[in-house]
């Protein structure tokens, strides 16, 4: 365990350096704009440094919300040169291509989304200083936006027709390069290699990043969505996947939204009812008892994806998960496929025994700090505090030793990706503040 004061100072330096005046970039080189779920995790950590800055992080993101309720996965900083990141604003063309879907005219964004962690983040930020939250009208202003965001997912993204949210691009679940996407992506004709330039390879080793073939498929899917005006009902969606982590995070955020509604004197029951429906659909549709975890489902193929991803463990954060399901998840997390408490320092993003496992390549095996933060909360919620304590200690030690890296080798803790990564620093601050005690709605 690193010296707490030294860790806090180092994490604070990262977050101050990456603050732009209205929001926080994940990193200045590789990710020079505002990312959706990054900002949610960043706000959770920022609340321990400045509640007002944490509030502003979420307010800035939600100011770019579209009229249909979606929260875009990137909000672009107009001062950053177009060539610094791809796909850039001139690719997405949100203000024109997305006009019919209600894209804002005064800021450029992407047209896809990321996991809905935002209501949970907003509630945790509020809880850090309820008086300051009330003084600034924080929850009053965010509640309708968060409700609209959840409404978009429930109303536009139930592509499978069974009550779960579908993701329509591998970037949307946040685990961009997971082996779970290999099968669904194989049906997508990639964009021509000369039609785009990858800026990510300027900041990271090609061996750690997605392949050119996969990137070409990412570009094709995004371009097709854009060319259909980002309208879900009109887009063929060659890629459509029900992801257990995305739906679990929506359930957690519905519980948080119920708490927010209650704090404002509104009726929490619609949020609790949606959370209950989603939980039932998650278990009935994605739970695999033989695998001992939740599996992604390829909506277009009408079949589960037979790959073990850490996404299948994230439902541990869901309140009210059936006891037999939670117990099986705890066994799977500690088993040979994920190694919690044994073979690894931090839980990997993909099956240690899987054919596609790679401890260095983006989301195909490395351990990520946001995932382990979620699992730490889930372990405590479902009666495994000792394992949670050990994971918390490992997360703090590894975050500090790795220079707050983007991700690490799960076995050795060796830093991978970019350094001084904002959500790593932010979540280290949150873990440092003390173990989750179960007082929150999730």
Overview of the molecule:
It contains 16 helices and eleven strands. With 442 residues, it is mainly α. The protein has one domain (4-433): Glycosyltransferase, CATH 1.50.10.10. The strands form four sheets. A four-stranded antiparallel β-sheet has the order 3-4-7-8. A three-stranded antiparallel β-sheet has the order 9-10-11. Helix 1 (4-17) packs antiparallel against helix 16, helix 2 (36-46) runs parallel beside helix 16 and helix 8 runs antiparallel to helix 11 (244-263). The mean pLDDT is 95.
Q: How does CATH name the architecture?
A: Alpha/alpha barrel
Shape: globular
Q: Can you give the helix content as a percent range?
A: 40-55%
H/E element order = HEHHEHHHHHEHHEHHEEEEHEHHEEH
SS element count, helices: 16
Number of E-type strands: 11
Summarize this, please?
Belongs to the glycosyl hydrolase 63 family. 44% of the residues lie in helices and 5% in strands. It has 442 residues and is mainly α.
Keywords for this entry:
442 residues; mainly alpha; Glycosyltransferase; 3-stranded antiparallel sheet; 16 helices; globular
What is the fold's blueprint, element by element?
Layout: H1 4-17, E1 34-35, H2 36-46, H3 51-62, E2 74-75, H4 89-92, H5 94-97, H6 118-128, H7 130-136, H8 138-156, E3 166-167, H9 182-185, H10 212-227, E4 241-242, H11 244-263, H12 269-286, E5 287-288, E6 293-294, E7 297-298, E8 303-304, H13 323-334, E9 367-368, H14 369-381, H15 385-401, E10 407-408, E11 415-416, H16 422-432
Antiparallel strand pairs: 1-2, 3-4, 4-7, 5-6, 7-8, 9-10, 10-11
